[in-house]
Amino acid sequence: MQLGFLVDLHLCMGCKGCEIACKVENEVPLSTWRLRVKYVDVGTFPETKRTFTPLRCNHCENAPCERICPVSALHYLDNGIVNVDKERCIGCAGCVMACPYGAIYIDPETQTADKCTYCAHRIASSMMPACVVACPVEANIFGDLDDPASNISRYIQEARGDVQVRKPEKGTNPHHFYVGGGNFHLNPLASRREEGYNLFNKITKLPLGGHH
Amino acid sequence: MIHETLAATNAVVTLDVAIPDVFWGWYVTMNMWAKSIGTGLIFMLFLLLRKNHSEANGLRTSTAIVAFVFINVFLLFTLADLHQPFRMWHIFAYTHLTSAIAVGSWMASLFLGLLTLLIFLGFKKNDAAYDRVLFWTTILAIPVTLYTAGIMAEATARELWQMPTESVQMILAATLSGSAMFILLAGSKLSEETQKFFGAILGLSALLAFIIYMSEYVFGAMKAEEVAAILQYVKGDGEYATMFWIGQWVAYILPMLLIALSRASNSASILKLAAILAIVGLWVVKHVWLVIPQLLPMS
Fold first, then answer.
1. Is B90 an 8 Å CB contact of chain A?
2. What domains sit in chain B, N to C, each tagged with a CATH number?
3. Which tens digits make up the pLDDT trace of A83-95?
4. Per the count of CB atoms within 10 A, which of A121, B88, B131, B233 is most buried?
5. Chain A nearest-CA residue for B28
6. Looking at beta carbons, which residues of chain A come within 8 Å of B155?
7. Is A210 in contact with B26 (Cβ distance < 8 A)?
8. For residues B290 and B173, what is the distance between their CA atoms, to the nearest angstrom?
9. What is the pLDDT of residues B51-105, one digit of tens each?
10. A50, A68, A102 member nearest B101 (Cβ)
11. Chain-centre distance of CA A39, in angstroms?
């Protein structure tokens, strides 16, 4: 079994329900996110639209975070999930430096690395990840990539040419796919970040011990 | 460069809570800088023993002590940079062998043990045993110097750090700072010819490192979009541009000029000034190269 995620960006409407559900389910501290929805405005008035991209850990088959972790705190589960052992983590931030998707952060409460685990604890109890349950339009598709009859496998077969992963050139083989994504959805360098031009301008950050 | 498409798409991020941040800051700069000096000193002592054995008399113990101090500074800042420093022992209890951090920790610990043995043998005045241990310490100093380049290479997200260039830069940083520190440490105990020899190592290390940085500065952007975006931070009026050029001048350009001047005028004082500048400048150079890839948004 190799669990994977697919987000149909045609359906996502940026409600952030998944983001909130993840926060609540995993008790993600203030100023950190396991899953977040990025808004990018595209075009010039009046031909403009707002796009939404849920971003979470890609659970790569060839995960740089797992490779660089000196104590195997980041490790593979049998179902392909890249999990974090917070009791073992020494907080070296090697994984933060290695992840090409910026999906790992240092938890300000435990001072250890943390990220999306595809709600591994829920999976173990045969439940869907919290973000999947919360999505009102079923834009988050979750399932077994090894099973050709699974929902996610059928979705990938049907969408074929429209299925993408983030930064394929990194060779990480993500288990997280997007359908209907443009360059500005998936490539962080394809959009500008302008100071003061943001829906939230003053984001408070919690202090991190050993964070210099 | 994707900027070319911006006029068409005019894509602007209007909400993204994950702001890029510097996780490896000046503590890690201290780590790399101190390690370069610690291992570089051992390289230089080894070279001196091969070049002129008799001149090493009186320098064995002092060199080992200074290298020991700098390696401890390196380890101290490594420990201080951890968010969970009291779990450092996990590296040895749960070693993950694909990690350059884990392998490097083992090697650095062994290196420290050998330095301790060298100091002991130095105080015992057992030069024969010292020189035998120094040989193996020098061999180990090579991977100890290089493993940080391995860590940077394993940082897949940071396109700027490539193993071939970073490994050469690590060795050059060691020969640059090692020769500089050795000139300051040994100073008048060395003959004029030997001082010039270490001055030449310093100058050539500076020249080669400078060439690599300039190559990356000019040509790095031509192969990878991310590298181009990262290098923008040190180009023009980029955030770190001033710091980058201060580093290049103080670590490389001025020492090269001063060494040429010291050779022409036979001045040991100018050579020492070049050594001091190289050591100070190396910190700045390392810091800029460490920080700039972390300024780039990853998602």
1. yes
2. 2-295 (1.20.1630.10)
3. 999 999 999 999 9
4. B233
5. A212
6. 64, 68, 94, 97-98
7. no
8. 14
9. 988 999 889 999 999 999 999 999 999 999 999 999 999 999 999 999 999 999 9
10. A68
11. 14
The answer to whether residue A151 is domain-embedded is: yes
Note whether A189 contacts B91, CB cutoff 8 Å.
no
Judging contacts by C-beta atoms under 8 Å, the chain B residues touching residue A58 are none
Phi-psi region of A186 (alpha: psi -120 to 50; beta: other; left: phi over 0): alpha
DSSP character at residue A80: S
CB-CB under 8 Å, A191 with B154: no
| A80 domain-assigned | yes
Write out the residue range of the structural domain in which residue A81 sits: 3-190
- Total structural domains within chain A: 1
Q: Which residues of B touch A172 (CB under 8 A)?
A: 156
| Helix, strand, coil percentages in chain B from 3-state DSSP, rounded to 5 | 80, 0, 20
Q: Model pTM?
A: 0.93
Q: How far apart are alpha carbons A92 and B24 in whole angstroms?
A: 9
Tokens 């890839």 belong to B293
Chain B partners within 8 Å of A106 (Cβ) = 23, 83
Give a yes or no: residue A205 inside a domain.
no
**One pLDDT digit (tens) per residue for chain B, 299 residues:** 444 455 667 888 888 876 667 899 999 999 999 999 999 999 999 999 999 889 998 899 999 999 999 999 999 999 999 999 999 999 999 999 999 999 999 999 999 999 999 999 999 999 999 999 999 999 999 999 999 999 999 999 999 999 999 999 999 999 999 999 999 999 888 999 999 999 999 999 999 999 999 999 999 999 889 999 999 999 988 889 999 999 999 999 999 999 999 999 999 999 999 999 999 999 999 999 999 999 998 88
From residue B122, alpha-carbon distances to A182, B65, B140 in Å are 66, 9, 19
> What's A142's domain CATH number?
3.30.70.20
Interface check A112 vs B, CB under 8 A: yes
In A28-150, where does DSSP find H-type helix?
A: 64-68, 94-98, 120-124, 130-134
d(CA A82, CA A61): 9
The interface residues of chain B toward chain A in range 233-272, judged by CB-CB distance below 8 A, are none
Per the domain annotation, does A207 fall within a domain?
Answer: no
Contacts of A194 in chain B (CB under 8 A): 12-13
